[in-house]
Amino acid sequence: MGYNKPTPVQEQAIPLILEQKDLIACAQTGTGKTAAYLLPLIDRISNGGYEHTSTLILVPTRELAKQIDEQVEGFGYFASVSSIAIYGGNKGDDWEQQKRALTTGADIIIATPGRLLSHMAMGYVKLDQLNHLVLDEADKMLDMGFMDDLIKIISQLPKERQTLLFSATMPRKIRDLAQQILQSPSEVNLAISKPAEGIDQRFYLTYDNQKLPLLEHLLRELDVQSMIIFTSRKSNVSQIVRSLKKMGFTAEGISSDMTQDEREKALQGFKNKQYQIVVATDILSRGIDIDSLSHVVNFDMPQDAEDYVHRVGRTARAASTGMAITFVNEKDMYRVQKVERLIERELPKLPLPEDFGPGPAYDPTRRDGGSHRQRGGNKPGSGSRPSSGDRSRGRGGRNRSKGGDPDRPKVAANPTAQANPVNAEGQPAPRPKKRNNRNRNRKRNGDGGGNPAASAPATSPE
């Protein structure tokens, strides 16, 4: 399996797990935490003579469930340990396969909370003799809103069990969950490791509508072997992929809009070197075992500093070198400062190419983008410069700031505008009647007639 010596989390966690103690462990992706709990649990299962499902592993995503299932198959090959991954987004045949495994009693169940609850609601899931419960990436599960699902599942498990909680971060909500479900736990707390020294980290301060042209410009100069581009919006994925293909790169996108089969096929194609570049939403930011990337691009600044470390940590693994490029718009500059505090290092902010014009000035105190609002929702590939017509407007549409926006040209007044319109005879023209918008608003809100699709909520970023 390629293991010569244990990683720090394995060295500290494995003895505690073998002693059957509850455990709360803070360790990030890439530290060997999965093996830290799988190896001792497989040893316990192979020597325990269990005739029922003994272990439940709860995870936030389908991809992580599938990956852990594959690792169980590898680690437990000579131990005759069975496992099944339970996750949604499958075909009907997969549901039946999952049902058979749950009713016959696989040794280890790896499941996403929502899908497991769906099976449990059918009445055939028997976990009353469970011995071990593992929550992997617990912080991610809480971020995704699985708290209630977790409590429902855990309430149906035996109270006498071993519970292991692994989390990349340790916020208060994780501590509160641990108090509810763990009994006198031991603790392993590994500090968030800094990005490897071999990573060349580059930040570009850019408006949103400069990002795609900048990406294209940089790709012409880079030697890309394997790259993941992370974006916070599903709507950006297909547009970036189209641009990459026009440039001659082999590229594929992965987002939650795809079926599970499509996502797995794209991911496997990337691992098999069929594609140079994968464009993905946050689906791939944690839990996917992809090593030795030459480049990572954050098309959008990650929400959390820890997520930045997870993402850029996918390059320069195994003492190799790599490059991490991050685009930062005017609204996300304060996040850069959080990253710098976490990794205790100031990161370089590189200038844009000369023909791109200026980007936003670096101001880490700005949280909402100030007056730099690009109205009209420019697409990332529009290639246009920030509009000079953007204004910081208060009530009544007037610019309330005395000095205007120092980073934007002022908008000239319309010389043809007249305060009071007149008719051909020079007399004051009658004012147009105010339109009654009641019916229009009723249709817009779906209260009557109209296209029902128009009132559907917009797809939110993933």
UniProtKB/TrEMBL annotation:
SUPFAM superfamilies found in the cross-reference section: P-loop containing nucleoside triphosphate hydrolases
GO molecular function, one term: hydrolase activity
Domain of life: Bacteria
Chain spans, region Disordered: 350-462
Record keywords: ATP-binding, Helicase, Hydrolase, Nucleotide-binding
Residue ranges with Basic residues bias: 431-443
Family annotation (PROSITE patterns): DEAD_ATP_HELICASE, HELICASE_ATP_BIND_1, HELICASE_CTER
Segments forming domain Helicase ATP-binding: 14-188
Domain Helicase C-terminal: 214-358
Pfam families reported in the protein's UniProt record: DEAD, Helicase_C
Assigned GO CC terms: cytosol
Family assignment from sequence similarity: Belongs to the DEAD box helicase family.
PANTHER family documented for this protein: ATP-DEPENDENT RNA HELICASE RHLE, ATP-DEPENDENT RNA HELICASE RHLE-RELATED
Record protein name field: DEAD/DEAH box helicase
